[in-house]
């Protein structure tokens, strides 16, 4: 087995880990990045399926994501705007497709007024939330003890309004049933995007894409690290010195399948649900063990349907479509830059996704395409390429898009999410404030972990005799 020594060992070659590694390298520290998969990128993955380039994981860039925008520019990548010309489609409880323009979908005047009033209420609450410290709000425990669904239904008995309001953080973002996470978790999701209004605005949150796919970000970051990125190396054991504080390091030994890395510090740059895959010697403190049991991944099927042409545009449709009553609760024009073919991307989440995976692959495809046809017409049933991104079966991900707390968990444990344990630091989108669950958050957390290590090393050097 190969054995090497570095200043910092980083577990996970996604955007967070690779960002941290590059920041540390720039500061003169040596690094080793160990990745379990045979590729870099984590939940960013651009692949060619049946001749079509598909972004199987994360893909969008919104205007508030400064860290991602800076990184994209630094890497010399180009972006393009998501196609959005024409009318959007909304399917209401009557099952009829209604075309519309503007931000508000076609609902009754009473439902529209209710949605507007509750959105205003939510924006005011979100404005009080620090996305880096939602647990610090004076009502954090109260808001974390009530489910998102229960809170909404306490505001109104208008079921259509509740379904549409709940959808933004439930099916669309946390990808869990709305009774299974708290009001506080929902407010954090909105605060991470700047406001609840931002979160429900598809033209804001799904603004641009990277030409050639967003996985180019980790691919190019990995290129800069060269031979310091090791693929196919799942870390099985992490030995760490529990006798020292995070300020002094203390040393770690990461044992992977084919190599051992001895280092002063470690960064775990992977989803918290995967921490239990590593044997810590000694065990992590009991607080961390408890906390990690209250975090779980959501679940969503990302559906890619490629057609000879973007036929919906000829009908005057933008491709933007959504409905809390449909199997595919939202869908968008996802055509690639410069590609004559048209691509639609649809999403099926939480319990609906569970139900679909009880069917055969052919039945599942038929049901999903039937749902898309309710938005776009019969042509949607005949793609030339069809593919389902199923992150629930990914050995080193186990769900999508990210991990979130169960009811009560955020107020109880949130403040410890990013707290180092001895020489071990943490970085991933799942523990971000701004950019939570997004690549932007992963980059922010990578920078944060690197900064922690550089700061503690600097403080240690200054305190040493003769410094």
UniProtKB/TrEMBL annotation:
<feature type="binding site">
    <location>
        <begin position="35"/>
        <end position="36"/>
    </location>
    <ligand>
        <name>FAD</name>
    </ligand>
</feature>
<dbReference type="InterPro" id="IPR050703">
    <property type="entry name" value="Flavin_MAO"/>
</dbReference>
<dbReference type="Pfam" id="PF01593">
    <property type="entry name" value="Amino_oxidase"/>
</dbReference>
<keyword id="KW-0560">Oxidoreductase</keyword>
<protein>
    <submittedName>
        <fullName>FAD-dependent oxidoreductase</fullName>
    </submittedName>
</protein>
<feature type="binding site">
    <location>
        <position position="347"/>
    </location>
    <ligand>
        <name>substrate</name>
    </ligand>
</feature>
<comment type="similarity">
    <text>Belongs to the flavin monoamine oxidase family.</text>
</comment>
<dbReference type="InterPro" id="IPR001613">
    <property type="entry name" value="Flavin_amine_oxidase"/>
</dbReference>
<dbReference type="InterPro" id="IPR002937">
    <property type="entry name" value="Amino_oxidase"/>
</dbReference>
<feature type="domain" description="Amine oxidase">
    <location>
        <begin position="16"/>
        <end position="454"/>
    </location>
</feature>
<dbReference type="InterPro" id="IPR036188">
    <property type="entry name" value="FAD/NAD-bd_sf"/>
</dbReference>
<dbReference type="GO" id="GO:0016491">
    <property type="term" value="F:oxidoreductase activity"/>
</dbReference>
<feature type="binding site">
    <location>
        <position position="235"/>
    </location>
    <ligand>
        <name>FAD</name>
    </ligand>
</feature>
